[in-house]
Design a protein that fits this description.
Elements (H helix, E strand, L loop, with lengths): L20 E2 L3 E2 L25 E2 L10 E4 L2 E8 L4 E9 L9 E5 L6 E3 L10 E9 L8 E8 L6 E10 L5 E4 L3 E7 L4 E9 L12 E6 L3 E5 L16 E8 L6 E10 L6 E11 L5 E5 L3 E5 L6 E11 L2 E4 L2 E3 L6 E6 L9 E4 L4 E8 L5 E10 L7 E10 L1
Parallel strand pairs: 5-11, 13-19, 21-29
Antiparallel strand pairs: 1-2, 3-9, 4-6, 6-9, 7-10, 8-9, 10-11, 12-14, 14-17, 15-18, 16-17, 18-19, 20-22, 22-27, 23-26, 24-28, 25-27, 28-29
């Protein structure tokens, strides 16, 4: 605490009694002055009185109460949440500040509160006071003030400002445009688009509801329900959904289109993603199947034997729909693997020019008898699309 010096004089002296006022507000013994500033963070609960810290350097042009800072702007604050700031309250007089009160005033006084103002503050001391802002409704700007009053002291006024904001859903998608490059007319290109709700997180936030539509018809969009699946009630803040965008050209031309994503986002309710792709006619598919049938011979019950056949592209690119077993009432034949993976969207297997596709088939008899079935698949040869491979096996 800074002592307030009182200089006495003899009764017969004619010299005047002089008080020296330093720092513009506090009586001082001449100690060094340092600048003071408020701190941020939430203060503790209310208190009845305090001796406080010394006010050296905090008092300016006052002999009463002094606050630093004298203005607090809470900035953008979500409705339904609370922001807190701290200030330093100083008693720059030579006497204790008693009956101290903090009165919240202003047009939006209901949004502001003082949490721990003391009722007494000793002379030449300071304390930390916390002020909070809890906006309840949207408005351009919240205005308020806190008036600190004490008996026989000059008042100190704190100006308060804030901006209430709502936790509205917002959308952001990547990539911002999609180019499919060259795609064969009997094939399809697929690109994944990721959309996220970038809205602020808050209690019970409004979820982002989106509806993707691609045009013209050579483009198509749908939610991927396996990877970053879109929830039926929309995206919560920070949640991501994947949209699979497909390009299926029907002619050898350059196609342009748009993916329109309608949503309840405040800033971008109709987001547009440019689309482009080049259609190409594929060269004729020429192929060979070897062997032309699979004979598993005799296999005991409970055993399993595997054989494979190859589909070789001898000219152009061939597209094969996933092979399947038909006319197998006993269920003893199974396609177990393919050397090339099918497209996850179209289900077709692409055989590059001069390459081959190997298909593995297993025979697993569960009873004695003579068994036969057929392996069927479609290939992109307009002259001969439907292919059948006979399957044979016995179990003695």
């Amino acid at each position: 605490m800074v002592a307030i010096p009182f200089v006495s004089r003899p009764a017969s002296s004619s010299l005047p009694l002089v008080f020296v006022l330093l720092g513009g507000g506090c009586l001082s013994t001449g100690s060094d002055r340092t600048s003071g500033q408020g701190t941020s963070g939430r203060g503790s609960g209310g208190q009845a009185s305090t001796g406080g810290a010394e006010t050296a350097g905090l008092c300016t042009n006052t002999l009463g109460l002094y606050i630093s800072p004298n203005t607090i702007d809470f900035g953008s604050t979500l409705i339904g949440t609370t922001a807190s700031r701290s200030l330093t309250l100083s008693n720059c007089s030579a006497t204790p500040a008693t009956g101290l009160t903090a009165i919240v005033d202003g047009p939006d006084q209901a949004f502001f509160a003082v949490e721990n103002a003391p009722t007494t503050l000793e002379a030449g001391t300071s304390t930390t006071v916390t002020v909070s802002y809890s906006p309840l409704a949207v408005e351009p700007r919240s205005l308020g003030a806190v008036i600190f009053r004490a008996s026989d002291q000059e008042n100190a006024t704190l100006d308060l400002f804030g901006e209430p904001i709502e936790a509205t859903p917002e959308i952001s998608c990547i990539p911002s445009s999609i180019g499919f490059g060259q795609v064969l007319t009997n094939d399809a290109g697929v690109v994944a688009l990721l959309c996220i709700n970038t809205g602020l997180s808050a209690p019970n936030p409004t979820k982002l509801v989106i509806d993707p539509t691609a045009s013209p018809p050579v483009f198509f969009a749908q939610f991927d329900q396996k990877t970053n699946a879109y929830p039926p009630d929309g995206l919560a803040p920070g949640q991501v959904a994947q949209i699979d965008v497909t390009y299926s050209p029907v002619s050898e031309r350059y196609d342009i289109g748009t993916l329109l994503i309608k949503s309840n986002a405040t800033k971008s309710p109709a987001l547009q993603i440019p689309l482009e792709g080049q259609g190409l006619f594929p060269p004729p598919c020429q192929f060979e199947i070897d062997p032309s049938q699979l004979n598993f011979g005799d296999q005991p019950i409970g055993a399993s034997m595997s054989l494979s056949f190859d589909v070789t592209s001898q000219g152009g690119i061939c597209l094969v729909e996933s092979p399947k077993i038909i006319d197998d009432p006993a269920g003893v034949f199974h396609v177990t693997s393919t050397s090339l993976a099918p497209d996850p969207v179209t289900g077709k297997i692409t055989i590059p020019a001069s390459a081959n596709l190997s298909v593995m088939v297993a025979f697993s008899p569960t009873s004695t008898g003579i068994f036969s079935a057929e392996l069927q698949f479609l290939i992109s040869d307009p002259a001969d699309p439907d292919q059948i491979l006979p399957l044979y096996g016995t179990s003695p």
